[in-house]
Amino acid sequence: MTITTTIGYVLAGLLAAGIIFIGARFLVAPRVAAVGYGVPADLGQPSADAYLSVKGVRDIATGLFVIILMLAGATHLVGWVMLAATIIPLADATIVLRNGGSKSVAWGVHGVTAAVMLITSALLLIS
Q: Where is the chain membrane-spanning (predicted)?
């Protein structure tokens, strides 16, 4: 394994673990997770909990997909999946901005995540 691949795998693993943690937080502490996302949810609405739970489960599954591919040693496939998944934080940033959320969270959390995902993808795809 080259140093490029190793760095790519470390970054991919950290991203996967991070999104699993975030997903779990949406299930156990939805109010805190929604604020961290950049758009606080009105948990007084009956449907809010359902949407936050869906986000949590999808985040956990997304992280697990990456881990499964890493364990299979599918380096280029991990790179392609990470590249495709970059649309998620880009869309999240857009959603936060369009809904009056925090610009610092939109760019500082979601934008930086997208940038790290692009770097991770590049490292894995050139390996």
A: 6-28, 60-85, 105-126
